[in-house]
Amino acid sequence: MSVSFVTLPVELVYRILDYQSDITIIFSMRNVCQRFNAIVESYDRYQTITTLHLRWYEIRGIGTQHLANVLRNNTTLTTLNLGLNKIGDVGTQHLADVLRTNTTLTALNLFYNQIGDVGAQHLADVLRTNTILTTLNLDRNAIGAAGAQHIADGLQNNTTLATLNLKRNQIGDIGAQHLADALRTNTALTTLSLGWNGIGNSGAQHLADVLRTNTTLTTLNLGLNVIGNAGAQYLADVLRTNTTLTTLNLENNHIEAVDGQHLADALRNNTTLTILNLNDNWISDKLLNEIGELIDRDTRVTKL
Question: Which of 86, 150, 250, 302 has the most beta carbons within 10 angstroms of its beta carbon?
């Protein structure tokens, strides 16, 4: 008597699943037939998968489509890491489509996935209505200023996304301006990473202006940009009155001694900043020592 895999007893299928990885169960054990789907969905480990790391699997657009189909009915997954998978704009669209109805995913990592401004637009459309996602990592993609504008538009009325990483996306001053505009109305975002984006003093000015009124952003990463002396002065001016920012990263930004002094002066009046990163700027040892003495006197600032 021949035995078909799809007619095996449920308990025997469970024992087979015991020897499979989470990735194999999700990608290879689904959509064989309706009966097998039902068995997989009733399997205890499948019901408790909350985190899935698919970093560097090169699943591309087609693999992302298959994953999206699985996510449509999944009610347990909260964290999904798809870094280095070349999903592109097409794969991003598949994910965006399912995120419109998904009610469990809170953290999505799309690091280094060849996502451009079109993919950013798909994600922005999701941000307009999604009330579950709290963390989005788009580090090292290519959304540019146009993609930053799409994301900013999506953030205007978003009420849940708290952490956004847009490092290494070539957004420039224009992209920074769009995001600053979004922060005028957004009341959810607490952490914004914009490092390595070619942002100059103009972009820094737009961000500084919004920090005068924004009361939710606590962490701003502008490391490895080119804000220079003028940009540093804009930020120093706002630090005198801002009462919410606790972490500011300005490493490697072509900041010279005179504007390092402006930042030091601002710290005398600021009561909330606890971490300030000024590494790899053009600030003399003498001024760094002076700032260090200020930090020693003011225990509120815990890191330079």
Answer: 250
**Per-residue pLDDT for 303 more than 60?**
no
| Rg of the Cα atoms in the chain | 23
Any domain includes 304 = no
Q: Which of 115, 169, 110, 177 is nearest to 144 (CA)?
A: 169
Amino acid occupying residue 151: I
How large is the average pLDDT for residues 50-67? 92
Other Cβ atoms within 10 Å of 202 Cβ, number = 17
Across the range 259-267, mean pLDDT stands at 84
Q: Report angle CA 131, 132, 135 to the nearest 5 degrees.
A: 115
Structure confidence by residue, pLDDT tens digits, 27-46: 777 777 788 888 888 888 88
Token pair of 23 as six digits: 């990735």
Measured CA to CA in angstroms, residue 163 lies from 61, 124, 192 at distances of 25, 14, 6
Quote the CA–CA distance of 83 and 86 in Å, as a whole number.
8
Alpha helical stretches, state H, the chain: 10-18, 22-28, 34-42, 44-47, 60-71, 88-99, 117-127, 144-155, 172-182, 201-211, 228-239, 257-267, 285-297
Residue range 232-240: mean pLDDT, rounded: 96
Q: Is 303 among the domain residues?
A: no
CA separation for the pair 137, 127 (Å, rounded): 13
Helix axes 285-297, 257-267, angle to 10 degrees: 10
Expressed as residue numbers, the domain containing 41 is 1-49
6 plus 59 within the same structural domain = no
Q: How far apart are CA 218 and CA 276, in angstroms?
A: 12
In whole angstroms, what is the distance from residue 177 CA to residue 233 CA?
17
Q: Which two tokens stand for residue 154?
A: 């999506």
For residues 47, 53, 54, 56, the Cα torsion angle rounded to the nearest 10 degrees is -170
Report phi then psi at 63, rounded to 5.
-65, -35
Pair 70, 30: CB distance under 8 Å: yes
Residue 304's SS3 state is coil
